[in-house]
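This part of the workshop introduces the protein records we will be handling. A record pairs a protein's sequence with a compact description of its fold. As an example, a complete record with its sequence and its structure tokens follows.

_____
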Amino acid sequence: MFKALVGFVALLVAMAVSADNAVLADRVLVRKSEKTLYLIKDGIPYREFHIALGPKPRGPKQMAGDERTPEGRYVLDFKNKDSDFYKSIRISYPNAQDLQRAAANGVDPGGMIMIHGLPNKSTLPSSLVQQYNWTDGCIAVTNYEMDQIWLAVEPGTPIDILP
């Protein structure tokens, strides 16, 4: 039902969008269990993208090196066009709750969690790479999709990452 609604809304938005397709999202939603990233405008999802996560996608990130993607509310706070991956947008992990949990467990929470495209040196086709969870805890999309997300998201956009 949710995906059908997203498809219908995407069609409506596509018909109303100017030729440059630059509809700015006011929120990003990631549903890890669906392996999907949604761009949201005025509470309505208007685009969706298949994502790859880390090899251990279940559960929130606990510490550096655990290959998990965080869960919670963050902000997309910085765009990097000169990344080791085809463009990246930083997620404001760790937040205060993540820092508190890491301190209580005596571990480094990690950081530098991004939405990004494929590695710059990859020679594999994106259709193959994106079949697997291959990141160290980031959220990966194809380079083509990264271009679309890049245009739709400005620094300061909130992102909710759900299980």
Observations:
- The radius of gyration is 16 Å.
- The helical segments are 2-16, 96-105, 126-129, 143-152.
- The beta strands are 27-31, 36-41, 44-50, 72-80, 88-91, 113-116, 139-140, 157-162.
